[in-house]
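Morning!

This is the sequence you dropped in the shared folder:
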Amino acid sequence: MSKFYIVICFLFLFSSCSDWLDIKPESEVVEEDMFESESGYKDALVGVYSLMSARGVYGGNLTMGTLDVLAQNYNVRFSPSLTDLAKFDYVQELPEGRINQIWGDMYNVIANCNTIIEHIELMSKESFTEDNYNLIYAEALGLRAYIHFDLLRMFNAPYVSNPDYVGIPYVTIFSKEVSKQLSSKETIAHINADLSKAITLLEGIDPILIDDDENHSSNPFLIDRHNRMNLYAIKALMARVSLYVGDKEMALSYAKEVIDSEHYTFINPGNIINNKDYAFNNEHIFSIYTYKLKDNSDYYFSPKGNDQLFISSPVEKMFTSDDVRFKYWLTQKKDIYEINRYFMTKYERPEKEEEAEEYSDPNVPLIKISEMYLIAAECLSETNTAEALTYLNKLKSERVSPIVENVANSAELLEMIKKEYHLEFLSEGQTFYMYKRLALDRMTNFSGSVIAMDESKYIFPLPKDEIQFGGRK
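The structure's back. Tokens below.
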């Protein structure tokens, strides 16, 4: 067997229940040694989450950075390295470097998922304790589908206008061979297959169905399933994927199933300060524990940081003053010219560790319950406006934002849903994907001007090395 080295992070001192994913040191372990025991599979799975939490992936770039720059959520006045990106000029050196890093980092995560999947498929359930075989297998499948779906949303054409576009490969084995590029339809079929299999593995056995961490207090691996790729996260992802391909009936079904489970509730505004929970953790269906969250937040949003991003004026004006997102996510600070700007402070944390421990866990949300409400509202917008408004107004009322009494038509309702994406997923990376899913032909840039959008602005170019050495198109 060839020696493939997997990046893993070891589990240390479970001093509080968060902390199956409270990982600090990194190491490398040879593949053939790692998968001799159940603990090796657990460590490998931790390694996948750790890779995803890096600043170049979901710990920063794909949530706080690149995608929200493209959504025009920030003013990049003090960020010369992002100016070309904000103009969708992907061929310039700096945007090209970012995009190449995304491609490489994401497929590295997939390679680690594939190694887990390939090995566990050769094992018997009896080799694992309790239901850990199903849990590990399903999580790896779900994570592989999640990463591929985001790659599809970046590197392929909008599905609504070109479902036959040949773009990313769906990689299912660890190999040095070049994987074949697939059409968006074919890629979606693979995503759905992985997610369907994961659901089958988790139905009836996922500890999240019990929702009782106390029952698992002696087993850190089973604690805090609500942050990981659990059964509800997979079904929520199915809702997201189904909406992307235009299957509103399926999207609505999965979204309502997650909502009706009542497992996820909106945060009580009074608890935001009390619990120092500015990222609204109890609303996360799936999130990534990001050990360096403070550093990453400072990198993007500090007035003295690397990018010095502040909220664009058009987005700032979308908020009402009582909106809890405006009150707790945006803070006025002076920029380098001593001018007050609104900076994102959702992920801000104290420097001192003892003070930081008073904050909620440093999780970056990847799927939230609010998205399920917006999916339900959008799916019903053309067939049942009254019910659609019920879902939209539930979110707005929880955010202390004025509810909508009525709308003239479905187009007006869709405009309101689009606005909520800007507000609800600020610095979470979902707004650009919404524009692309709908293949919208206009976007307001950070200075208030209208940008004409077309397919070229929605498609990330493949890395040149992939084209030159991988024979990709």
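Headline: The longest strand covers residues 284-289.

More detail when I'm at my desk.
O.
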